[in-house]
Design brief:
Elements (H helix, E strand, L loop, with lengths): L3 E2 L1 E12 L2 E2 L21 E6 L4 E6 L5 E4 L4 E4 L10 E4 L4 E3 L4 E2 L4 E13 L3 E8 L2 H5 L8 E2 L9 E7 L23 E2 L13 E6 L4 E13 L8 E12 L1
Parallel strand pairs: 2-18
Antiparallel strand pairs: 1-10, 2-3, 2-9, 4-5, 6-7, 8-11, 11-17, 12-16, 12-18, 13-15, 14-17
């Protein structure tokens, strides 16, 4: 009976940071047509102006104003909350598998695409690293340096990633031949490790130094298993994504 590699399970952890402070992940009400940065329950408010003044007011809220301690910072109230400091991330499900399952006696390829939506009024930096990647213990990392295309020699097994974003870092851009050159923002592949084989290398895959609005960051994962590989039925690992507000 053919032995199958049921799946490569990827567990995701997300760290959202602004400067050195960890932020809770929240998603304001939004759709394709609107984004509500802040809302409140009150009895009056609005914006008025003349040649001598401009005024934005809100009436009816209680306990407003800034407050902080060693463990939190709070800007309570509609006016107190600085809309210029918007920062949130829409994240993929925390446990996903590459598909399809691979029959290890026959060999094959398995893929997974993960998508984050980042909204930041001050820019952001997005990085990833792999930890406890079971695939890397028995399946070699893809090329150490980013390489255009998934081009494996016959009979070789490998595991790697390819990021996609309009804010892609230069390392993962390509000119169709070489990564690190050109303006193409997809199809540069590499492994999670570095020259020493460590799977804890952090890779900055996307960044933007000014207000970003809503930006998509896609991470493609791929595993190629050579025929007649001696693998356990399930390979698991963790991928950590860190998003930092500029």
């Amino acid at each position: 009976m053919a032995k199958k590699l049921n799946h490569i399970l990827i567990l995701l952890a997300l760290l959202i940071m602004t400067n050195s402070h960890t932020l809770a992940v929240t998603v304001p009400p939004h759709s394709e047509n609107y984004l509500i940065i802040a809302d409140s329950i009150n009895f009056a408010g609005g914006y008025s102006t003349s040649s001598a003044y401009s005024l934005q007011d809100t009436g009816g809220e209680t306990a407003t104003g800034p407050s902080s301690s060693e463990s939190y910072r709070l800007r309570a109230g509609y006016q107190t909350m600085d809309s210029s400091g918007v920062f949130f991330v829409d994240v993929p499900n925390s446990s996903q598998s590459l598909t399809p399952n691979i029959d290890v006696q026959v060999g094959g390829q398995s893929d997974l695409s993960l998508v984050w939506e980042v909204t930041s009024s001050s820019g952001y930096q997005f990085s990833i690293k792999g930890s406890d990647l079971g695939a890397t213990e028995v399946v070699p990392e893809y090329y150490i340096a980013a390489t255009v295309g998934w081009n494996l020699p016959s009979g070789v097994s490998a595991f790697g990633f390819s990021p996609e974003s309009v804010d892609l870092t230069t390392t993962f851009k390509n000119d169709g031949v070489n990564c690190g050159l050109g303006s193409n923002t997809s199809n540069c592949w590499q492994g999670f490790g570095n020259a020493t084989g460590s799977p804890l290398t952090e890779h900055v895959i996307a960044e933007r130094g000014v207000a970003s609005g809503q930006r998509l960051v896609t991470l493609k994962l791929r595993a190629t298993i050579n025929a007649n590989s001696f693998l356990s039925q399930t390979l698991t690992g963790n991928i950590y994504a860190t998003v930092v507000a500029s």
